[in-house]
Amino acid sequence: MHLLSQTANENAQAAPMFDPLTIGMLLILAVLIFFMFRNSKKRKAQAAQLQDKMVPGAQVMTNFGMFGLLVAIDEDTNEALIEVAPGTTLRVHRQVLARVVEDETLDETIADDAETTGDGTTTERP
Question: What range does the domain containing 29 cover?
Answer without folding.
Answer: 2-50
